[in-house]
Amino acid sequence: MPETQDPHVTQPSSAKFVYDFTEGNKDLKDLLGGKGANLAEMTNLGLPVPPGFTITTEACKVYLDSGTEPAALRAEVSEHLDALEQKMGKKLGQADDPLLVSVRSGAKFSMPGMMDTVLNIGLSDASVSGLAAQAGDERFAWDSYRRLIQMFGKTVLGVDGERFEDALEEAKQAKGVRVDVDLDAADLKNLVAHFKDIVAKETGRDFPQDPREQMDLAVRAVFDSWNTDRAKLYRRQERIPGDLGTAVNVCSMVFGNLGPDSGTGVAFTRDPASGHQGVYGDYLQNAQGEDVVAGIRNTVPLADLEQIDKASYDQLMQIMETLETHYKDLCDIEFTIERGKLWMLQTRVGKRTAGAAFRIATQLVDQGLIDEAEALQRVNGAQLAQLMFPRFDLGAKSEMIGRGIAASPGAAVGKAVFDSYTAVKWSRSGEKVILIRRETNPDDLNGMIAAEGILTSRGGKTSHAAVVARGMGKTCVCGAEELEVDTKSRKMTTSDGTVIEEGDVVSIDGSTGKVYAGEVPVVPSPVVEYFEGRMHAGADDADELVKAVHRIMAYADRVRRLRVRANADNAEDAARARRFGAQGIGLCRTEHMFLGERREMVERLILADTETDREAALSQLLPLQKADFIELFESMDGLPVTVRLLDPPLHEFLPDITELSVRVALAEARKDANENDLRLLQAVHKLHEQNPMLGLRGVRLGLVIPGLFAMQVRAIAEAAAERKNAKGDPRAEIMIPLVGTVQELEIVREEAEQVIAEVEKTHGVDLRLPLGTMIELPRAALTAGQIAESADFFSFGTNDLTQTVWGFSRDDVEASFFTAYLEKGIFGVSPFETIDKDGVGSLVRNAAEAGRATRPDLKLGVCGEHGGDPESVHFFHEVGLDYVSCSPFRIPVARLEAGRAAAESKGSDSR
């Protein structure tokens, strides 16, 4: 989840649109973007950063809003370009000794590969020879020129990138070589001519020769790339606001493609996959930066640089230590070596896997770089949820067909697909798929999101596939070189000749890099075993990850204010919830106790024509209900258990009206109709509603069917009394659902209190059973001050509240138009997944305030699915609720996020 801007960081005046790298710092990400802010920070630290300047996000916003750059921008860019030329002693694109620059995007939040970059701006027919003479390397000059035309053509002029790729492939085939470094100067010169022809044919204009025009068009293209489909999709996926805009960084070029003493690489101060300390990253000799992240050439491990260029390696190791100590976190670094000279091109706090996040946070605490409160902020509930997913059973029989680089952990199983379109199509049809590519690029984002996992035959831990997969928490194996991927024929061939066709099931292990044919069985995660109590975090052989999770969870539990309860309907779920750390049950749905063999008893209750028949049906249900509650109170002894009285429409306990009508009609035709079926059909017709979720349900049932709620209250009270007399500590709470007006609650409360008093007298105990209500209707939220007069507690039923506020049925709309709403950006995320703060959240906030104004000691909780959603938990903390309740497996996530919300709130207060 993107961090919020610190309001105490002073922001410069927005009247200035361009900043030299010497003018900014790492706290100006809103203005300079992450890349620009960090380039400025490294410059301030005295690290070797090529000179340059940053065009601010404010300029981008003006451009996106008006369609044209700010009036002052051109003059400011010219001023900073002049200063850069003076500093470098050469002019942009001059013929004899050209200054070349890169134009790179840089939003506040990292969006790897989603926006545009153009290298070698300033090269032209007039200056390519000058660059060759300056470098003493004609091949290098023509290689740089073909890269410019290729990147500029695709990014700025909109030419299909495959046109250039195909031309490059043809040139290699004609030469009889496999990689582009084997093309000589003459080959590249011919390729440049071919590329220029492609540009002219596809765009109707020649490739621009004016270097300033190249730069201005590239800047505009970077601005435009903020709103490309892939960038918008990525922002929706990562919940990045769409109004931030991107900065543009104009940086003097340094060249890694000048021969074997040059190269480019990406380094991590710790392993982003595991969190372990060491030398991690990729290096590629005689290459430019895009070659590494694109995964088009297989790199060597960063450690090999020590043998290739020890001086640069040693300097890089020192800089990495400096940056990690300065940023107090894992740093992701891009660098270039130009003929033995090391240059730093970028640093940022690196994306990491969920396991690495927990390990690194505790490591940094042990090193004294951060405290426990900061460590808690370095992880989140989504990462913890990932760690609870199952993993492959290593003892099961399996057929390994290849192995690559473990880029992003997890156990993913699905049908092989070889393009993003198919991945999306099959996924929408309910199929689980594995996206297999030679390498991915930003256009594959849709398929990567749809797939269970990603497998590539090229690239390393810093390739596009690896970086994006880690950011999404998606399983990924990269660089499986022994697997030959043929996307056109839609197949993959293993080293022994085994062919995996599209549709064949494969399994990939992102923790080991192993690839299997067929489906590999899974086993529980060690983190789940820890939460279940089957693994002790203090044991000598405990997994390092489990120890890290234990430490952070322990701190979260110490600092959180929100208590965490479970939604559980039986003793088994309650016991599991308690093992997972639940502090009670926030929602026990009693309707689940009326299913199975008890359905016939409910039918008898509904069909009862007389008070005697109705009481007989209720007396049959009473002992069964009481037994349910006794088991539940035993499992949760000493902790609160909120029992919701019967809520759903009665038709849910009756046969389907169509099936029953057919059955009766056939029986009548045979003249052997069953009297009970006839009565049942009559009752079903009587109870049939066009929209049952807004009809006879909840408190309305208790008011219309005499004795129903009284029976349930008696069962709860008697179970509590028997448990109490057995020296237990039952803490039952009774919740009345779907209340819309205080009068409904008053009537039910009066009846319930009479029943409780009778049970107390009979059993000789003082039960003290709080009576409260669910706030799940807009009217209840708007009249919460009145309802609180008769309620001991509120529990917000945010599932129904979301449906009634928005006016749609969850079961229907999620399958019909939600996909379109998400794609069009109307929803950033489903309002059933994360609470709609402006609408539903506003009602929750107002109801909480109104309820407490009437009754200061009113207990407030939430029992909808939002109770286990990380972002929603922070909202509930802010609103002042006392607890959240969620499904048992979401309890650890809620505990962690409740701790993070408290720590974040405390940090804001201290500032």
Automatic annotation (TrEMBL):
Which keywords, in A-to-Z order, does the entry hold? ATP-binding, Kinase, Magnesium, Metal-binding, Nucleotide-binding, Pyruvate, Transferase
Catalytic activity reads:
pyruvate + phosphate + ATP = phosphoenolpyruvate + AMP + diphosphate + H(+)
Q: Where does Mg(2+) bind?
A: E776, D800
Binding site residues for substrate: R589, R644, E776, G797, T798, N799, D800
Answer whether the UniProt record assigns the keyword Lipid biosynthesis to this protein.
Answer: no
Q: Which InterPro entries match?
A: ATP_grasp_subdomain_1, PEP-util_enz_mobile_dom, PEP_util_AS, PEP_util_C, Phosphohistidine_dom_sf, PPDK_AMP/ATP-bd, Pyruvate_phosphate_dikinase, Pyrv/PenolPyrv_kinase-like_dom
**What enzyme category does the UniProt record give?**
transferase
Q: Which domain of life is it from?
A: Bacteria
The residue ranges of the PEP-utilising enzyme C-terminal domain are 547-898
* Pyruvate phosphate dikinase AMP/ATP-binding domain boundaries: 30-66, 73-298, 306-355
Q: Where are the transmembrane segments?
A: none
- GO molecular function terms here? ATP binding; kinase activity; metal ion binding; pyruvate, phosphate dikinase activity
Record PANTHER family = PHOSPHOENOLPYRUVATE DIKINASE-RELATED, PYRUVATE, PHOSPHATE DIKINASE 1, CHLOROPLASTIC
Q: What is this protein called?
A: Pyruvate, phosphate dikinase
**Origin organism of this chain?**
Streptomyces inhibens
